[in-house]
Amino acid sequence: MASTTLTRDQKKKVHYPESDGKPMAETEFHLDESFKVRAMLRHYYQARTDAYVGANMLIYYQEGNPRKSIAPDIFIAFGVSKRKRRIYKLWEEGAIPAVVFEFTSKCTADEDLHTKRNLYERLGAQEYILIDVLGEYLPSPLAMYRLVEGHFAPVSVTQTDNAWRAHSDILNLDIVVQRMDNEFVTRLFDPSSGEWLINPEEAIDIANQLQTALTKEQEERKRLTQQIEQLKTELNRLKQS
Length: 241
Hints:
Layout: H1 8-13, H2 28-44, E1 51-54, E2 59-60, E3 69-70, E4 74-78, E5 88-89, H3 90-93, E6 99-104, H4 109-113, H5 115-123, E7 127-132, E8 142-148, E9 151-154, E10 158-160, E11 163-168, E12 173-180, E13 183-190, E14 195-196, H6 200-240
């Protein structure tokens, strides 16, 4: 977290842009996966006031030098507030992102594996997670590195059928990338509860579907009840005739 000694006036004059002009994601697959994982992590940490989940936000790591920035697809920082931010300045926040996710693509694979990995390692991120959404650019659709004595060491990834899994010590979650047709879907599993993390948006859709099904069932039950009553009435009429 390098810092340059600046006067108060110099600090005021330094402009830190909110965008680097690069697209958020190469394809809709990458964008959907990024948004889904961010939503799950935000829901997972909703009760913690000191856990911040950021996405596609410029992180500036050298005070006074706006060229020293990087924009992770997703990052989780602890010991900071949940307030909304335009940018993330390490020297002001006082907390380096503990975990970083990158959803790698054709254009970013080399940078993700080398330039970004080296920078996150130098900054002191505890874990670095790479996910190949299309399964085309990495030897495995899931790769994870953990900081050990100042250097990233590969974390074991196990493969079972069409799923790749690695455990995050920092998040205490299993990161699972599962092949579904021609797409690789990211899922998060909580070993302490034995449950998969829920995407709140998907949960709302499921709830709406269940409510629709329940409404249809109630309407069908009402229709059948009316038919039964009509049959009873007709039966009574026939008995009296």
